[in-house]
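Intended use. Records like the one below are meant for learning the mapping from a protein sequence to its folded structure. Do not use them to infer anything beyond what is encoded.
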Amino acid sequence: MNFSGAVALQTTAWLVIAWVLLFWCWRLYRIDILRQRLFELRDELFDFAAEGHITFSDEVYIQNRIFLNAMIRYAHRMTFTRAIIGTVFARTALSRIRTPAQLIPELPAGATKDKLFSIHQRANAAVFLHLVTGSPLPVFALGGLVVSLVIKGVYRAYSEKLGSDRTVAAIERLAILAEATA
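Structure written out for the chain above:
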């Protein structure tokens, strides 16, 4: 085997190892992290009800528990693509179900409402993070968004320096000024 064949074989081996780590080990790790976070939130919800802030028979408690149990049970099936498809096609079926997001705002203002809202919001944030980190599409989209925001910020900074005269002549004057001071 010549040198280029050995390099090709080694590169292939490293790509296979990277593929296994990225698409098998990382996926399982992400699912475990999501389930662990959701278990902690479900435990927090149970403790909150056990302390007497709400009863175990309250509809908002039951719907929150059902929501968390469903997320735990189907964490391995949650992907960015399925979330998009589910959002688009299951909208009418989901509109008949009273979700925690609909029930929590109906509660009277106070610590109970704030706590339940916090638990629900943290569960949604955990699922969102799981969905975003599981697919290259949202990662690249967020990366593009960050790059565009940086470019927009740089443009604004230079626009403020240039004032109202944003022409090529003003940029040339800045370049001449920078060259003369250097």
